[in-house]
Amino acid sequence: MTGVPPGQSGPGPAVHGSPGLDYLLQHTPADRTWAVLDLGPALGSSVAFWSEFPCRLQIEDLRDSLVETLTRAAPAAEGEPSARDLGSMLSLCPEARFEVILCWDLLNYLSREEIAGLVRHLRGFCLPGTLLFALFHIHPRIPSLPAVFQIVGKDRLQYLWPSGELRSGPGYQAREISQMMEGFSAGRSFLLRHGFQEYIFTYGGQPVTAPR
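^ that's the sequence the OP posted. Answer follows.
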């Protein structure tokens, strides 16, 4: 993998501040054990990081599933992949509930319908107040594949890109994002200088029955 985020050139991994991650960690439960759902790959660094907190970590590597479909089949239109059932790619226990969900930059590689469908699925595993962390590209051209993010501190992430190739980005605007994230409110967002906007979405619904 290379470390070349949008708007930056040069070899090697890139480490950037993450006010969104910092905000998320400041708003996790302080009086009980809580659960984290990580939709990125299983990384030893992530496991080690979360072991410092009173939480249970579950990893469902949606990124690798998306990379496989992105590299195997051409999208219907550039920047607008054909519909995929993202919920079927996850193997979550119906009784599982999470206080934190890490989506990373995966939503940039999904269509509007796919994002809405994934969000509907994830709502079944949320509690009132569940926090969902996601990064959206703000540049019209984005890396051809999702990045791998390593947590290197409570407010710092290392970005690892699988290649230097680019594709057209979806260009989702704030209003569109809010519509696709039905059931969640964008509690905070942070515009970063290197081409990302971090969002912390908060689930505001009532407990629901998880999909089976």
